[in-house]
Amino acid sequence: MQDFLFYLNLGWEHIISLDALDHQLFVLALIAAYSYTDWKKILILVTAFTIGHSITLALSILDIVRVSSAWIEFLIPSTIVITSLDNILMKNKKNTLMKMNYYLALFFGLIHGMGFANTARVMIAKSQSIAVPLLGFNIGLELGQIVIVFAILILLFILLKMFKVNKKDWVLFVSSGVFALSLKMALERLPF
């Protein structure tokens, strides 16, 4: 049980800590087009991300898949660039954007999962089963994402209801800001 709680906390910190800005920006870009009334769809969306994250994390820990960490560190902000750009370009096609986001979340979760793989590979001993660490880590990650999602949705509710912010302006503002920050991160992490 102590191992499970250790990895649960590790997954929580992986998404909640100040060092996790790239993951937080990805969640923000991923849900920017949604409304607070779409909270069930959003939970499915972030779970799709966690599933993708879990798959490659497991494959990486088992040493089935190994990708240069320099490339992964570049690809992670690149996924955020693509997601935020998609929000901007598809802002008038909300239904298409929402459907596409499920695929982006799953596929980009595969890339993000490799970001923690090297650390996890070292932490999990060869003789230790990966089931408990992987389960604990991913539940912690999912709980952290849910907290971030609900914080964003509360902010969105306040902006839309109390300050009468236009939803399309919100999507454009958030997506443009996330695009700029993640593009800067990607350019700083060019692997060549």
Chart the SSEs and their pairings:
Blueprint: H1 2-16, H2 21-31, H3 39-61, H4 69-89, H5 94-115, H6 117-123, H7 131-162, H8 167-188
List keywords for this structure.
single chain; 192 residues; mainly alpha; 8 helices; globular
Structure, described:
With 192 residues, this protein is mainly α. 36% of the residues are buried. The longest helix is centred in the C-terminal third of the chain and has 32 residues. The chain is built from eight helices and no strands.
Give a quick account of the main beta sheet: strands, pairing sense, barrel closure: none
Output mean pLDDT.
92
| DSSP, total strands | 0
Percent helix range: over 70%
Summarize the structure.
The chain is mainly α and 192 residues long. The chain has helices spanning 2-16, 21-31, 39-61, 69-89, 94-115, 117-123, 131-162, 167-188.
